[in-house]
Fold each of these.
Amino acid sequence: GAVVSQHPSRVICKSGTSVKIECRSLDFQATTMFWYRQFPKQSLMLMATSNEGSKATYEQGVEKDKFLINHASLTLSTLTVTSAHPEDSSFYICSASGTSGGSYQETQYFGPGTRLLVL
Amino acid sequence: DAKTTQPPSMDCAEGRAANLPCNHSTISGNEYVYWYRQIHSQGPQYIIHGLKNNETNEMASLIITEDRKSSTLILPHATLRDTAVYYCIVRVLNTGNQFYFGTGTSLTVIP
């Protein structure tokens, strides 16, 4: 149990285009999903927290208009990198926590990550 | 959330126990200790978590000191596939509460 998927696993795009990354909880309902970014040889940096049906909460320094997050259902959250530039190239990882009272509420389960390269 | 301190790197011989320490001297009474690991180019994998009692599962054991200011993750018989970066995180138990990752310990299992 507790499987989280991401799509695509890697994407290459031209500078100025937008890229959408999907995060799905496959076998549990995720009240809260989180988005992280990781640069080479660095730790994970939390970008934002999203609750189903609510606006995402962004960490300090993360541009909400650049990184659009939608959490429309209990199993799907999307991150859209708008007008991507080469400095946005990174490894993007999502995670999910289960609904309160359920067996998956106590921790976060991570997706496999999406590697974005902006040319 | 409390800050954690981990050694940047460790080596362990294959088949031996790997003991990974973590200091969290400012931990609060309602904060749990979590351990995750990240194998290169993959998402983090949940290992174990606990509050104050020692915990064991199929992957590892978690030993938390009585004052809860430090803990040790034990991989009883390390294999080459355990080579990864191991992260110790403390946080309040709640679905909506965030994880903030530190720099972790890079464990290399040596044949």
Note: Chain B has no helices and nine strands.
Amino acid sequence: KAGVTQTPRYLIKTRGQQVTLSCSPISGHRSVSWYQQTPGQGLQFLFEYFSETQRNKGNFPGRFSGRQFSNSRSEMNVSTLELGDSALYLCASSGVRGLTYNEQFFGPGTRLTVL
Amino acid sequence: KNQVEQSPQSLIILEGKNCTLQCNYTVSPFSNLRWYKQDTGRGPVSLTIMTFSENTKSNGRYTATLDADTKQSSLHITASQLSDSASYICVVSLYTGGFKTIFGAGTRLFVKA
């Protein structure tokens, strides 16, 4: 079973530009969550998509947006990049085993550097 | 308020020694608790997952315990290796018609030769 894939793995942008990150979840998983992780910080929740609909949203500005396609692949977009957006962006794919627990698997992440 | 607190924030141990990481949570209604290992610059990898009825779960040299009454969990690493140097994240999920996940800030473990 293939794991969660994220592309690109590394990205360098300049302030003011925009960026799109991609995540392909594990086959059969319908939920995709995005997280931002900056050095020394824990994972900060961005948003979660389930069946092409945003189900939950964290406390990030509107410059951060996302979408999910019918095949469950998800994209995250950040517009008007700021230096503080430099971070590791992680995508997590979730499947549900009844009501017992939710499996959540993380991708390798995209390292975004804003210059 | 649903929170997950981990201690210590960081830890340095010698190779071959054991260590225990702590996780306290105030999450309700509790569904499950997971421990992840995250190497620097990589995505977290699941070590163990426990539901309400499970007290102990092992994965090789990693053993997690859960006390649902006191809302505490621990991760014990036996005979540490240099490759155990990583961040260990405690994650608690609650279920209220849908799953919600609360992350701890993590414990940074350094294993020295």
Note: Chain A has a mean pLDDT of 90.
